[in-house]
Amino acid sequence: MDHALIEKYAAPVPRYTSYPTAPHFTNTVNNDVYAKWLSGFESEDKLSLYIHIPFCDRLCWFCGCNTKQTLKYAPVQAYLKRLYKEIEMVAAKLPHRLKVVSLHLGGGSPTLLQADDFAKLRVVLRTHFDFVDDAEISIEIDPSDVTPEQIKGMVDFGLTRASIGVQDFSEVVQKAINRPQSFEITRDVVEALRAHGIKSVNLDVLYGLPFQTTERLMDTVAKTAFLQPDRIALFGYAHVPWMKTHQKMIDEAALPGTIERFEHALLAADALVDAGYDRVGFDHFALPHDKMAIAARNGTLRRNFQGYTVDPADAMIGFGGSAIGQNRHGYIQNVVPTGQYQAMIDKGELAVGKGYALTEEDRMRGHVIEQLMCQFSFDKTDLVARYGDAAKAILREANLIAAQHEDGFIENDDECFAVVGQGKPFVRAIAASFDAYFGKGTARHSKAV
């Protein structure tokens, strides 16, 4: 592909795990608004729960998460005390006891939790919510700090899917991002999880890291595929030191350029397909039998704050500092600083920091963007059926976008708008054409490839 074309479409754009994206959240959505939204949940609503554990025992320099380093367990226990209280307060504001179809523990590093605290958290959650029998319970795992006792604790907690960060197995790259983690350690954790009956394993690989060469990345991809995880996420490293100051520890001169990043992404993707994985969206891969691969084939794949998902929930409730939730009314994000989060909970308050109340146009544009991100297309007839005459404005935009497009990445007719061929890696950039907020405000984003 022409290098000028790659540079053109690699311009920074959102990852679109929500619409509008988080930089557009405001403090007009506060505790009172959230309480009102919670009171409007219906008895048949299915819930997804997200719990944020904002602690790590080592700060990885590439990380874009809201987390802090601690070598002591006391701060984690103090935080968990407030987390239990928040769960109780939120559940009390719901008008019905609702069913949970999905639970995800993210961080930070949830594997800092000791087995006893996994057990306590399980009791608190099941005291206030009903979990369906086949609920997916996923936990992000750092293999370098997990013990056999913690694995047992996670299994007893109800773990059904493990998500493990690999990043890159090269020692040179690992040193540059402060993430020592050998292939052997990762392999042993994967094998231990499977020995405990965990059938679904996801591994995360990053391209665009410092000192990452084609040879190093392809070695990582080969070793990752050798472990036969059910899913693989192939993320482009997002270098955003203006947001995450610890990323300033990374030598920017060692980062691959845009063209090299793009070539690495294509080579890694082709290698995973050759290893038997189906492409899912623009940066995920799954074995053909996996639910995510099936959802990509039948058109039911979804996207939320965890990325691509098969989560069937009607709403997500986030617990913990910086946690984000979403429901039919809009988005909610808890305050980020753990001290402020804990102080608000101690006062008996919800810990909302900001959010966004959706308009009908937001919902429509969000649907279009999600369809493009998941299926690389959206059905015009379906859009009209969902939103009536309001959809006509979007359809006019789609026709104009297609008419002005000169690079052969878009097919457009009376029934469908689609991103095709070599345009698929750039779907984020094309989706941004439907974002009414993009370019407004001071938000800065990572590269689109």
Task: Please tell me about this protein's structure.
This protein is 38% helix and 21% strand. The protein has a nine-stranded mixed β-sheet with strand order 9-10-8-7-6-5-4-1-13, sandwiched between helices. The chain has a three-stranded antiparallel β-sheet with strand order 14-15-16, with no helix packed on it. The chain is globular, with a radius of gyration of 21 Å. Helix 4 runs parallel beside helix 5 (148-157) and helix 8 packs parallel to helix 9 (258-274). Strand 4, helix 4 and strand 5 (130-141) form a beta-alpha-beta unit. The mean pLDDT is 95. It starts with a helix and ends in an 18-residue tail after the last helix. It is of the alpha/beta class and 449 residues long. The protein contains 15 helices and 19 strands.
In a nutshell, what does this entry contain?
The protein is of the alpha/beta class. Helices cover 38% and strands 21% of the residues.
Q: Strands, helices and their partners?
A:
Elements: H1 3-9, H2 31-39, E1 46-53, E2 55-56, E3 68-69, H3 74-93, E4 99-107, H4 115-128, E5 130-141, H5 148-157, E6 161-167, H6 171-177, H7 183-195, E7 200-207, H8 214-226, E8 231-236, H9 258-274, E9 278-280, E10 284-286, H10 291-298, E11 302-304, E12 307-309, E13 315-319, E14 324-326, E15 330-334, H11 338-346, E16 352-357, H12 360-375, E17 377-379, H13 380-387, H14 391-404, E18 410-412, E19 416-419, H15 427-431
Parallel strand pairs: 1-4, 1-13, 2-3, 4-5, 5-6, 6-7, 7-8
Antiparallel strand pairs: 8-10, 9-10, 11-12, 14-15, 15-16, 17-19, 18-19
Helix pairs in contact: 3-4, 3-11, 4-5, 8-9
